[in-house]
Amino acid sequence: MNITVTKPFLPPIERYLSYLKLIWEKEWLTNNGPMVREFEVRLKEYLNLDYIVYVSNGTIALQLALKVLNIKGEVITSPFSFIATTSAILWEGCEPQMVDIFSDTLNINTSLIEEAITSKTSAILVPHIFGNPCDVEKIEEIGKKYGLNIIYDGAQAFGTYFNDKPIFAYGDITTISFHATKIFHTVEGGALVVRSKEIERKLRMMRNFGFADEYAICSLGINAKNSELHAAMGLCNLIHVKEIINERKRLSERYDKNLEGLPIKKQKIAERTQYNYSYYPVIFPEKGILEWIVSQCKERGIYPKRYFYPSLNHLSFMKKRSICPVSEYIAERILCLPLYNNLAVSTVDLISEIIVNALKR
């Protein structure tokens, strides 16, 4: 048995092969081919959003977001996230300004944002942790008050709705990851959801070395294109998103039942949210308990994940070190349990039993 924290959903192979046959017939593998264009159209229809640009991965999407909005100076962000959120800021020559998190939702603590704003602050870039929406209304109120751009890292949030709208409908730009471990994936891939045709046009040039057409190079650009083969996987998987979320919900509710009444904490999901069940995080009362559970799981071929560890304010290559006690506390004690579509209920029960026994020790 080898049970990882997540595994990719794979569509019926016959469907994917039917798309590959079309790709072979056209002999067009990359460079904004027909499959990529169709995938972008289908994404817009599925999300009911107007402007989406498909790119090679979620990290490059973050970098492009900072570049297209001409973000300079300091960027307010969260220390409790995957490294890409912070590394993209640093890669683009900006300075992350870490703001601590709420202990219940695990998202950025909006009551602390204003005191972190300086004359050098140009943007707020924050993740929706484990697909749980940030307080987007408060963040956007702050953004308007101080004239700051708002970028949301929606890497884990595909399928989450807030106020009956896709969470991607908020902010100046929301970036998405379509990595194989995500609820909806294209093997590798990412996207930017933007608010205007002009920003979309600029991003299409930037993802293709700055080319506006075959010969006109009109802006600084990089190679952020994605391939026909990746887009084909996206077209196959898009029709399965609802069933994927429903299955993850079913397994999450099994964990809920098994772990009910234990001295653990679970993430509080924001009100008015239709959640996507992207992960199943558990916060233990002590780091030692977490480590014992991990060791017991590994003995049985089960590999939960310490998302997110360490707290990013401790990164050695950060120029400015911030003190974020809540993020540091949570990072030491949080563990994401295995959750994916063909995970057996008996495995959920076994993992739950390990946790129950650990908390009885």
TrEMBL record:
Q: Which CDD domains match?
A: AHBA_syn
Q: Where is the signal peptide?
A: none
Record keywords: Aminotransferase, Pyridoxal phosphate, Transferase
Tree of life domain: Bacteria
- Gene Ontology molecular function: any one: transaminase activity
Q: Which family does it belong to?
A: Belongs to the DegT/DnrJ/EryC1 family.
Protein name listed in UniProt: Aminotransferase DegT
